[in-house]
Amino acid sequence: MNDVYDYETDKRNTRKLTDGLEGGVLDPARQKDVLVAAYCSTIIVMLFALATQCRDNILGTILLLIIAWQYSAPPLRLKEIPIIDAFSNGCLAFLVWFIGFSFFGSSISEVPLKPILNNLCMVGGHALAAVVDFEADTAAGQRTIATTMGRRPVAIFAAVCL
Hints:
Strand content: under 5%
Distance between the termini: 27 Å
Number of domains: 1
Order of helices and strands: HHHHHHHHHH
Shape: globular
Radius of gyration: 17 Å
Structural class: mainly alpha
Oligomer: single chain
């Protein structure tokens, strides 16, 4: 889904232009298929969460799905709101962990400190990725933590988070 809304940036990003770990540029002809798959997957994931009948698991799943969609897609497009982009990405990683943690009934009040600190590491890792994508994001006119604050301050922010 992110590749649908990042097409303009991705076609300028050298990391996306080579086949590899970073993925590739999504052919515009396939974008509708990806969105349909994302909608269907969202419904399936939500149905599985509802089947657990665990309140915290259901709430965690709802929050994960909302943030996942709003990270990339309009109207919020959190990835284009500096600082929020990094923290929302970290929240996604935490929520994926939390959904597994709460699957059999564990609640948010039982979460140990370590996963929360790991979340902070994800925030830092995301910020570093924004530094790497600085040129492509700038060329596409995207607002990210790096294009707004500059590379050096974001690298320092990332180091503090890590």
